[in-house]
């Protein structure tokens, strides 16, 4: 016991096994290895389609529009009547030579589109409606109806409605120019009627939207809240000239 105490501590620690310095290292960092062929990843059947980077890409296309729509049937009917009228007008000469039958079909489709856009699509998709009224003094003015601002329209329905409202009058205007260039004057009255219907709806809903926004801004600034289950009647006066041209 005393010998162990007197022995220095460093002498009691055994050294590690000596390494053989003559044994060469097995690895060589500087050694150049043969180039390996690149790895090519080939996607399978499910990964062939590009992945969506945002929700807009995931819900693109016609099917995505109808999936996001709050009223897909109303949106479908809006474009159905409008596309049908212009398609029948363009292709009627290929299927029948009866001018009267073609005219009747196109006019009926235009009337259905006018009524549907004014009374159903506009009220359902964007919460707007308009009509022309004559008071007891014989003065003509437009009445605009708007939805309660606490219930905003679906953004997809609203965007598609305004696209349809402004695009198809331009298409009918282009067809009118083509009719004049081809000297096909027999179809000019149909195109003019289509322009009257489409432009009337475009102007009416533009005024209704502008009037509704102005009323909402005034009500918010004055602290008066707009209520009502069926919406609030927002009335804007468009005097005799416009009322008589676009009146109903």
TrEMBL record:
Keyword Transmembrane annotated: yes
Keyword terms, alphabetized: Golgi apparatus, Membrane, Transmembrane, Transmembrane helix
- Could you tell me the Gene Ontology terms of the biological process aspect for this record? protein secretion; vesicle-mediated transport
Write down the PANTHER family for this protein, in alphabetical order. GOLGI APPARATUS MEMBRANE PROTEIN TVP23 (PTHR13019)
Taxonomic lineage from the root: Eukaryota, Fungi, Dikarya, Basidiomycota, Agaricomycotina
Protein's name according to its UniProt entry: Golgi apparatus membrane protein TVP23
Its biological purpose is as follows: Golgi membrane protein involved in vesicular trafficking.
- Stated family: Belongs to the TVP23 family.
Specify the domain of life of the species encoding this protein: Eukaryota
One Pfam family in the UniProt entry: DUF846
Among the entry's GO cellular component annotations, what is one? Golgi membrane
Q: Where in the cell is it found?
A: Golgi apparatus membrane
State which residue ranges cross the membrane: 97-115, 160-181, 187-208
Q: How does it sit in the membrane?
A: Multi-pass membrane protein
Which InterPro entries would you find in this protein's record?
Answer: TVP23-like
